[in-house]
Amino acid sequence: xxxxxxxxxAIRFTLAASxxxxxxxxxxxxxxxxxxxxxxxxKIIPQVDKKQSGRLEKIEKFSDYVARQIGFEDASExxxxxxxxxxxxxxSKACDQSIYAYLANENDSESLYVKLxxxxxxxxxxxxxxxxxxxxYVVSQALSIDSPxxxxxxxxxxxxxxxxxxxxxxxxxxxxxxxxxxxxxxxTINVGKEVMVPMALSERSPVLLFMGGGMGAGKSSVLKDxxxxxxxxxxxxxxxxxxxxxxxxxxxxYKALHNRGHYDDMLLTAEYxxxxxxxxxxxxxxxxxxxxxxxIMDGTLSWEPFFEQTIAMARNVHKYKYRMGVGYxxxxxxxxxxxxxxxxxxxxEHHTQKPYRIELVxxxxxxxxxxxxxxxxxxxxxxxxxxxxxxKSHKRFANAFPRYCKLVDNARLYCxxxxxxxxKLIGWKDGDNNLLVDPEDIKSLNNVxxxxxxxxxxxxxxxxxxxxxxxGSVWNDFVLxxxxxxxxxxxxxxxxxxxRSIKKSKSVTLL
Length: 511
What we know:
- By secondary structure, the protein is α/β, with parallel strands linked by helices.
- The protein folds into 2 domains: about 35-130 and about 470-510, no CATH class; about 165-455, P-loop containing nucleotide triphosphate hydrolases (Rossmann fold).
- It is built from 21 helices and 11 strands.
- It has a 7-stranded mixed beta sheet with strand order 4-5-3-8-9-10-11, sandwiched between helices. The protein has a two-stranded antiparallel sheet with strand order 1-2. It has a two-stranded antiparallel sheet with strand order 6-7.
- The longest helix is centred in the N-terminal third of the chain and has 37 residues, at about 1-40.
- The radius of gyration is 26 Å and the shape is elongated.
- Keywords: ATP-binding, Hydrolase, Nucleotide-binding.
């Protein structure tokens, strides 16, 4: 009987796994079918070379891609253009001057400058819109463009020794890290300069402002504008800004691993110090709330239990003190314990602090924009995140936002889909009122709630009808602009003349 039971369990497990597999295949096929229905222009997809085994050999370099988009099948025809494209991608300091100098002798140099920069931007938006599962390779290739190519053996050795390298650095810097993190926490909360709560704060409720949105949503841009508002700019005390990424960048272990220049380690380095940076941020948050300070918490807010428990703590912190809890802890029996904050009983202490006013500012954008920003940020700053993790953070926040609004006193929602314009306010809530939205604009949030977090390209991101193809979208109006071909023709003619002139001058110099 026991054996029969085991066989039965095995059969049920196999059937369940098969059903799950069929569901996954059906879902993936649904998204893939859209690629053919949308009508993809193959020219716009970066070229990929694979070995007979199917293993990735290489992806077309960005500079070669730019040359091909403008109309040069052989990138060696235009080496200076390729160099400028690479410099623009990495946002090198002298990039603008180099482009001006490149076009200086043309009759309409200023107009050509604008058109070439626009073309570079279009190429960035299309080049990084595909092959998301190969994003680490693409970023590594872009960063190592001027370095000698690594052999396959060196790649294998680096991957095999990564754990030992990380552990060695951690062991050597363990004590240094403790003191360094403590100093960063004290600097963030400004302990020592303001022992007492400022007078203005004692006369009003302190404010806890949550800045939420997926990775690459554009929260930093929105926060800059918010800090210019009369309340924050006129506050007697600077708010405590809590951001895990800031602690990550100041982490001595992160910096030690980061500065070694192994581009393939970027993702794992960030993930390796993730817990310590979030713990440091949580420590600062609970300390600042206990002191009754104005606080701005900047994060993805993609995990509902953490947000809900943090709200509950903030609602009661004027009556009780709190400390960090055990956090997220899976037990041996498979159950999950989530306890992020613990109340500290201090009945003998007289609390005079006013209750917190809790506000939420959400920032959303299409997953496509977020991925592009994330990959480009990785190239410019060497701060990387996995594409599927990034998409999950956007989807979770978008789904949770309406519920979050019910827990806070005031809420605002911004959209950062448009390029080159300020973030757009698309929803707001005051007091006990419901969230007010524009029926058309709120589509920006609704589109994110259903995106495909396993997408490999822009065309697999949404179900039909895909919002990326709608009139008014950046992809439709900027990348696929009907006028782009005529601009490319004009650029091609000027670039060809410039490159020939450069080659000619080099030949004369050699003679």
